[in-house]
Amino acid sequence: MLESWKVGKLENWKIRQMQKSPEIVGAFVRIFSYVN
Q1: What is the mean pLDDT of residues 4-28?
Q2: Residue span of the structural domain in which 22 resides
Q3: Ramachandran angles phi, psi of 14, nearest 5°
């Protein structure tokens, strides 16, 4: 339950960041995917 909450917060954060700066989010998504 807590994990899904954190994932939801992360998704919201990624969406907000994407609206500000697609380049930073692209890098973050690559790093996040690599970590997983």
Answers
A1: 81
A2: 1-35
A3: -60, -40
